[in-house]
Amino acid sequence: MLTNLSCKNTKNDAPDKGVSFGLNEYRKEMIDSIQYAIELEIPAQKSQPTQGKQLITFNLKSLDSALVLDFNTDSAHIHSVKAEGKEIAYEFVNEHIVINKDKLIKGKNQVEIVFTAGDLSLNRNEEYLYTLFVPDRASTCFPLFDQPNLKASYTLTLKTPKTWEAVSNGILKEKTSGADQNIYQFEKTKPISSYLFAFAAGKFFKTEKTVGNRAMTMYYRETDSVKVKRNSDEVFNLHAKSLAWLENYTAIKYPFGKFDFVLIPSFQYGGMEHPGSIFYNESSLFLDENAPVNRKLARASVIAHESAHMWFGDLVTMDWFSDVWLKEVFANFMAAKIVQPSFPEINFELRFLLAHYPGAYEVDRSSGTNPILQKLGNLKNAGTLYGGIIYQKAPIIMRQLEKKIGENMMRESLREYLKSFSFGNAKWDDLIGIIDKKSPEDITTWSNVWVKTPGMPEYEFVGDKDEILIQQKKDSLSDRIWQQPVLTYWKEMFAQGSVSINLDNKPQSVRKPDLPAMVFPNSNGQGYGYFKMDSVSEDYFLKNYNSKKDTMLTDPVFRGAMLVNIWEGFLRGDGATPVNFAKTLLDILPKENNALISDNLLGDIQTTWWTFLTESERNQYQQNAEKILWTLLETTPDKGMKNSYFRAFRNISMTEDGLGKLESLWNEKLKVKDLILSEDDKISLAYELVLKGRGDGKAIFEKQLSDTKNPDRKSKMKFVIPALSPEQNIRDAFFESLKKPENREHEAWVLEALGYLHHPLRAKNSTKYLKTSLDLLQEVQLTGDIFFPQRWLGATFSGHSDQEAADIANTFLKENPEYPYYLKNKILQSTDMLDRAVKLKK
């Protein structure tokens, strides 16, 4: 089977759409020394096409097959193809330019192509554009060999409207200006993979700064100069600290010379690691005044994450996208280390626990889970590999590995890995090979379970009054043993203690008690899996929450770990009823004084409130919930938490009093000490008031549009408003418009609109959109960016929690037995909470 796959498309077969694994392997063997000289002319009007020409230089080792270039757009976009200066014939087959071998020579070749650039990955707006080529989208813009293991140098020339700035990976060599046009010529880049080539152009402001002898330039669109000034120094300093830390850790100087970054409104990701030109979501870096600590940590983490990619992903790149997790895990793993010195007041064991475990469990508990290392037959499906397993579970497993082999050996192994494969490509097994040579541990066996198989272990306590035992429940894969150490805290009437156990699939003793004991599994939060708690231990923890009478209860890591255990138990039906669980969470929230845990509790409260409670149950406890949140909002001395409580209050408020407070905050008749509302907050308040029928919706939106000064936020608001209309026919028309790909280009706008379209208050009227949304999923995957299919599903099903919605999803999968497994998994992941809500409500 593998032989057939690797041979396919290597001789005379027509190439499949996308880049098959076989085509990837063949080109990797036959082609090297690639250079692209690209010239693009960007028109002032978004509706006009971008014209381009390029010279591709490469070395061809053999002439036994036609040359296949990737160009994922219409054949009419190709205007001419020349080889060695002479126009040649070619075929256009399945989004590929195919050049017969008799038009080529063994050795150095030059192919010149004149073309119209495709728009799919250009992210064009009226005043700016930016590229996003990950994982295989460069070929939607211009012809090339679009696979990660054919690294190349890029020389770019951009012709832009006169008032536009431009930035790319390379150093700006020269800028010239004409009557109505700027010409930007960028120097040749170091060898990089095609998905890392990037440029942005448009009406951007820019700030230049040198920190520690490192010159950096920041491009941005934000018009609030006070906000920019408040955040700029910290943004520059966090970059400088990250790069300095990475240079020290890797013993390799920053590899790409120039260092710029671009802040883009409603950018699809938190950031994208283009060497020399990182792109960020503008709101992730320009924070509102009194931002909560979680937002500040998130900003530091995304900067550290993208900076780490300069080494892990850019300098050394995965050979094939099945190993895409490798670059992401090291970026996340390094980011956690990097941000720690900048936040000495933060408990980073707790931060790691809450930032990774709940998100990983969300996928791993579902029937659509996947292993960390996934198979990939065609690069066109590479975007579906991304998700919680890569970003949340993989760093947990990498921390396990570091604890097994030690920090020094991990660092030595990574330095050897980076040095051995600099400006090249590598696989996970290449790193494992380096570690296995150094470590006495059996890393390969450990990796085969944790990295190459899906799911999570489940543990339970067994025994009687004579002895308490912990054991791994029988696994879905026979004889699979999840090797890991787990710390368990136990407590009796007159004694307490903890025991660390290296778990396997055999029952192991926790304690031989003198009296019946309570046990608190995974008490330091470092074990991975579902640790079922008994009701006596859980009740003790909740009733004595954060009590100073028990030193363990004052440990925030212990509290965080137990809350994660209890949340997992609730979702699996092993805990309280939804209404009792919601009451419990609201009862312990005022007792919590750690901002990280408080934010986590607020998230669980809001999910429980809208997903697991019936309307009558919400109505019964509505007034009390609002009172608790408003009291905390008014009385907390933590300015950051004040914003968190405000957003939770805004989310759940439904009473006359609660909505009156929201309206008074929005029109500024009510002020709360130290609560500073940003333009985004005001827009969200307007949305909530209209959604919940408070006041004249048309008048509210007219006022908010008039008050909104930032043009990008105003454009987004105009897009979202129809999804909030009280008129069903307007909402229907809006959903109908999303069937056209051009109306889904601004993915962040679409997702926000879908969230309101499917809000629990509108769920009964939006159920009819679910089947069509599922029907569109394959097209959404092909036309959207890597996270969009999962987020499309998440926003679509987020407000639904009844049997009818669950039946629609289940029927769709039953009626489509040949549906692509990678998208089937996304559906199963996105409807897991829906299925659990249906069961728990029963």
UniProtKB/TrEMBL annotation:
Class of enzymatic activity (EC top level): hydrolase
EC number: 3.4.11.2
Pfam families, per database record: Peptidase_M1, Peptidase_M1_N
InterPro entries: Aminopeptidase_N-like_N (IPR045357), Aminopeptidase_N-like_N_sf (IPR042097), Peptidase_M1 (IPR001930), Peptidase_M1_aminopeptidases (IPR050344), Peptidase_M1_dom (IPR014782), Peptidase_M4/M1_CTD_sf (IPR027268)
Superkingdom of source: Bacteria
Matches recorded under SUPFAM superfamilies: Leukotriene A4 hydrolase N-terminal domain, Metalloproteases ('zincins'), catalytic domain
Zinc is among the record's keywords: yes
Swiss-Prot/TrEMBL cofactor(s): Zn(2+)
Reaction equation(s) it catalyzes: Release of an N-terminal amino acid, Xaa-|-Yaa- from a peptide, amide or arylamide. Xaa is preferably Ala, but may be most amino acids including Pro (slow action). When a terminal hydrophobic residue is followed by a prolyl residue, the two may be released as an intact Xaa-Pro dipeptide
CDD domains: M1_APN (cd09602)
UniProt keywords, alphabetically: Aminopeptidase, Hydrolase, Metal-binding, Metalloprotease, Protease, Zinc
Every Aminopeptidase N-like N-terminal domain range: 35-196
Domain (Peptidase M1 membrane alanine aminopeptidase): residue spans on this chain: 236-450
Keyword Hydrolase: yes
Entry similarity comment: Belongs to the peptidase M1 family.
Descriptive protein name: Aminopeptidase N
